[in-house]
Amino acid sequence: MSWCVRVYHMLVMFTALATAHCATARPDPVKVSDTLSVVRELVSDHSKIAVELVEANLHSDLDFYPDHRGLYYRLVHNQVPVLNWSPLGLETDSQSFVSDLKIRDVQKSTFTHEYDLAHGKVSHVKKMAERFLLAVENPLGQKLTLEFVLQRDAVAFRYLVPGNGTVTIRRELTGFRLPAKSAGVMQQYQEASKVSPAYEYFYEKVKAGETDDGKASIRKIFQLLVGFTGLVIFGSDGWAMPALFETPEKKALLITEAGVDANHAAMHLTAKPSHNLYTLEWPSEKEGNGVGDSLPQGSLPYKTPYRTLLCCDLKTIFESTAITDLAAPLDKKFGGKLPAWVKPGKATWDWLSYVATGDAARQKEYIDAASQFGWQYTLIDANWNKWNNNNAEPVIKELVAYARERNVGLWLWYNSGGPTNSVTEEPRDALSEREVRRREFARLQKLGIKGVKIDFWQSDKQSMLQQYLDTLADAAEHQLMVNFHGSTMPKGWQRRYPNLMTMKAVKGAEWYQFPVFRGPNAHDSVYYAFTRNVMGPMDFTPLVFEQAYKQQKITYAHSLALSVIFESGVQHFADNADDIKKGFRKLTGEYPFVGAFLREVPAAWQETLLLEGNTDSHVVVARVHEGVWYVAGVNGTTSDIHIRQPFTFGVYGKYRAEWIREDGSGDTLRYTETELHTGGTQFIETVIRPRGGFVLKLTRVPG
């Protein structure tokens, strides 16, 4: 072969590679080539976010899309694209809304979200929004309604299928195509195993469009070492939601879902996005021990969950209530008002310190600690039912009475299975069947138990979502609060069932007990604040001081700050509470001001503000309860970060400012007290040390 032929082939190869790259990174066309295209725009009176829709064949402009007319949307904020043209469509067992769709009519209405929450980042929501109902028709004349909701913090949409009878949803074509060079903070979706999916991988920084093959390839090497346990430590099955992105124009976007109920399955994002296009995946057949169908079925008329896009800066995303805005309202069983027996609070918990549940004597030590520290609860974890030769009820009665005398309520742990898991921790087989569960809850109510922690769900199938919601309903009838552990991602269910206090769905502090896999580091705190905790209450089980410092150099002040930065209706403060030489007794003995702070810090908030931060470095939060403001910040980097924020929030006046920060080394603390005045002329100013943090309590001075 001559040199000129070789050069020619090299040029052809180079051109092909360049063309392929351009296809991947190609922006939307300025104008769609399809001369028959129909473009519509949904514009909000209350938001700068707009949605554009097009009925068109986009193949000539974007050749990775099919060569037929389809329905596409894109998201625009202040005239800047946040999502590029992305597909819409739905297939059922009897209808196809995929190609040659036409929008026959658009109806717009304005409404107000207004409701109260028993716990969370706010206590009351009142927000204007617009609803757009798009009448869509396929070539056979079959009809579908596409509902869009636009509000100041989000865009959400769902499919409404009319008719009578039943339907199976076969495929949802919805996609999310990010602009070229967007960056993401994402979590891989765990492959089904004995204890997964449970949303317990760390979030990581990625380039939009990257695949999740990393853990899958590692698994091939190392999975054999842990396979005998039944765990899938390294397996992944796509990307989880929420997924946070930043576009080149510095627009932030959180992709997630809301309004998910027992009519559908929870979904995740595809493992291998092509051309920055993320599409939706059903739960694996293997989830939940293979029990239940992956494809959802329901009665017509049928509503899918909302595909929800929080936009378009980190402050808006962090403060957003869109997940509960779009959830079902307060259940009728509560009579139109929040139940008085739902009481947020803080709890002692012995399992993390010992990786086992202690006997009744140890539980009394933890009850004593909760009473001494002014906390409301003690959680008794797995296998308590084995006490007293498997006759634990007399012991539980004794502990309930002991705790009641000290103004402490008790929570008990349960296994969610049933046939849906093979985990042997007990009690199990008590909550999976409704009649058995209702008898058990009635027994607990009679005993005086305040709440239940229910673990090992490991399925996002429709049948499992039904069990979640049935469990909440039954628990509410017996005045039991609930913590879902080893669970799916929060869906806003706490609006409908205020007794849902928290959910895990995070790689939390218990992983400090398994250092071969590493526990959360300082940067994880920042990632969680902007991703997982946006979705709802998070049972991270914070305040593991010594282990976090020794393993990850997280300072004590950083750990303390997580009691404010992480929101959970019940905060399980996880450090040791029965030994004066370590844990809370040692810490509060050395630093009485820490005990005072933890006695007073709330577990529910009336308002939440993001003061500053970004996913690369730090987060600073302000929350208020009954007029007292708590400000907290953490640093995820190895460099100092200078904070200087004007004090503009709160009722105008003078405030007592109580600071807790590092004092010398990271395992020491110091307390200082100053005064600050609102109005913007004075500043909340400090330096957050590497992997460090601070808390600041602001109490208004009368007069």
From TrEMBL:
<dbReference type="InterPro" id="IPR013785">
    <property type="entry name" value="Aldolase_TIM"/>
</dbReference>
<dbReference type="GO" id="GO:0016798">
    <property type="term" value="F:hydrolase activity, acting on glycosyl bonds"/>
</dbReference>
<dbReference type="InterPro" id="IPR029483">
    <property type="entry name" value="GH97_C"/>
</dbReference>
<feature type="domain" description="Glycosyl-hydrolase 97 C-terminal oligomerisation">
    <location>
        <begin position="605"/>
        <end position="698"/>
    </location>
</feature>
<dbReference type="InterPro" id="IPR014718">
    <property type="entry name" value="GH-type_carb-bd"/>
</dbReference>
<dbReference type="GO" id="GO:0030246">
    <property type="term" value="F:carbohydrate binding"/>
</dbReference>
<dbReference type="Pfam" id="PF14508">
    <property type="entry name" value="GH97_N"/>
</dbReference>
<protein>
    <submittedName>
        <fullName>Glycoside hydrolase 97</fullName>
    </submittedName>
</protein>
<dbReference type="InterPro" id="IPR052720">
    <property type="entry name" value="Glycosyl_hydrolase_97"/>
</dbReference>
<feature type="domain" description="Glycosyl-hydrolase 97 N-terminal">
    <location>
        <begin position="68"/>
        <end position="329"/>
    </location>
</feature>
<dbReference type="Pfam" id="PF14509">
    <property type="entry name" value="GH97_C"/>
</dbReference>
<dbReference type="Pfam" id="PF10566">
    <property type="entry name" value="Glyco_hydro_97"/>
</dbReference>
<feature type="signal peptide">
    <location>
        <begin position="1"/>
        <end position="25"/>
    </location>
</feature>
<dbReference type="InterPro" id="IPR013780">
    <property type="entry name" value="Glyco_hydro_b"/>
</dbReference>
<keyword id="KW-0378">Hydrolase</keyword>
<dbReference type="InterPro" id="IPR017853">
    <property type="entry name" value="GH"/>
</dbReference>
<keyword id="KW-0732">Signal</keyword>
<keyword id="KW-0326">Glycosidase</keyword>
<dbReference type="InterPro" id="IPR029486">
    <property type="entry name" value="GH97_N"/>
</dbReference>
<dbReference type="InterPro" id="IPR019563">
    <property type="entry name" value="GH97_catalytic"/>
</dbReference>
<feature type="domain" description="Glycosyl-hydrolase 97 catalytic">
    <location>
        <begin position="359"/>
        <end position="506"/>
    </location>
</feature>
